[in-house]
Amino acid sequence: MSFFDKIFGGKGEPSEQKSFWKNIESEEDLKKAIENSFHHKIAIFKHSTSCFISKTVLRNFEKELENLDQKTELYYLDLLAHRPISNKIANDLDVTHQSPQLIVIENGKAINSASHQDISVDQIV
Q: Which InterPro entries does UniProt cross-reference here (predicted)?
């Protein structure tokens, strides 16, 4: 395994999704997530599975989450597989599309958004 593969992950490396993520794979999933934001804060992580930077940011964010006591419902969107849903999020929540991106939602509205190295658990606490 090369140095860059160790840092960013190699193509042959299986992707391991953490158990705290709820996948958004349909408009119905998105609708349920937004509905849940009226009961408690949620966060959507938009991830480009082909981007090394996005993969690195996701790994770092997941490490931060493991130490977080706050219970925020976390959603994961593979934006390459579900680009129309990513576009719907941008349009419906009036948030400029970026990747990687973390969008925090409360009462059906985006209350915080961050991308790239600015993504941190600080956005959801």
A: BrxC
Taking the C-alpha atoms of residue 38 and residue 54, their distance in angstroms, rounded to an integer, is 28
Residue 49 CA: distances (Å) to CA of 71, 82, 122: 26, 11, 24
Instruction: Say how far apart CA 104 and CA 92 lie, in whole Å.
Output: 14
Nearest to 52 by CA among 2, 88, 90, 113: 2
Does the structure show a pLDDT above 80 at 12? no
Ordered by where they begin, the domains of the chain are 20-123 (3.40.30.10)
Q: For residues 25 and 27, give the distance between their C-alpha atoms in angstroms, rounded to a whole number.
A: 7
Give the span between the Cα atoms of 55 and 9, in whole angstroms: 8
**Which two three-digit tokens encode residue 60?**
């770092």
